[in-house]
Specification:
Blueprint: E1 14-23, E2 26-36, E3 41-45, H1 52-60, E4 66-72, E5 75-76, E6 86-89, H2 101-112, H3 119-132, H4 148-160, E7 166-169, H5 178-195, E8 198-203, E9 214-219, E10 222-227, H6 229-235, H7 241-273
Parallel strand pairs: 3-8, 3-9, 6-7, 7-8
Antiparallel strand pairs: 1-2, 1-4, 4-5, 9-10
The protein binds adenosine-5'-triphosphate.
Length: about 280
Amino acid sequence: MMNKTGDAPATGAIVARGLTVVRGDRAVLRGIDFTVPPGRITGLLGPSGCGKTTLMRAVVGTQAKVTGTLDVLGRPAGDADLRSRIGYVTQDPSVYDDLTVHQNLDYFAAVLFPGRARREERRTAVERAITDVDLASHAHDLAGRLSGGQRSRVSLAVALLGTPELLVLDEPTVGLDPVLRRDLWNLFHRIAADRGTTLLVSSHVMDEAERCHRLLLMREGEILAEDTPEDLRRRNDAATVEQAFLHLVDAADARAEEADGAARASEAAGHAARPVHEEHQP
Ligand SMILES: Nc1ncnc2c1ncn2[C@@H]1O[C@H](COP(=O)(O)OP(=O)(O)OP(=O)(O)O)[C@@H](O)[C@H]1O
């Protein structure tokens, strides 16, 4: 249950301490700390390229070169035990275009619940997932003939099949019209409230922030803020989360500039104070 202030409880569904990820020759996540509380919707927001997908890939265990501590549902990220407990939907819907919606789900259900004995379980899970994402009227359409939004809902249905404890959704509402976006967010809230599922949902659209219980605001591989939307607005004296975000960006830039200036000043002072003969030492 969410407490009155929406504060995160002491234990998290995801706990990161000093989480660093290197991609290529660059640290894309730079020693970040954050906690995602269980049973709530946490929004991961930040501009394109700030590291949201990288963070999600680390959480689901598909990212290489991860250091620091990252615990997911009480296990180290990537642990084999977590595979069936996490649903992950990437930005590119992974569905088979030449199968219908129903056949796609039947296929994934057969992988999740194999064997004749589990036939009924498969049938119930498939019907429920199709209803969850509101695709009953398209159940027998080929996935390749669906709109982008409908295809991403098929991916979401696949992720819901195993009733995961944690759902990690990478920009699930991108390109959707406002009505579909609203419907999807209502679905996320139903999933969290009815099933106690933890959701980590990324977006680069700040107005989606208001729909989350808690937010992780990211920028350039760092966490700028970890808060509820209300507290974030209040603390930054801002009318919207977007304004609060911009305020935090400006403050971070000012701090970085100050630190840069101080480093240059101390370097210059060091040079001035250094005896001349030191300059020639190897
Ligand atoms: N395979 C890769 N090798 C090296 N660097 C990469 C690779 N993939 C991504 N990056 C870099 O990592 C950084 C973070 O990328 P990431 O995809 O996590 O960002 P994002 O916040 O999810 O962006 P978007 O909202 O556009 O999806 C980017 O600066 C990107 O250039």
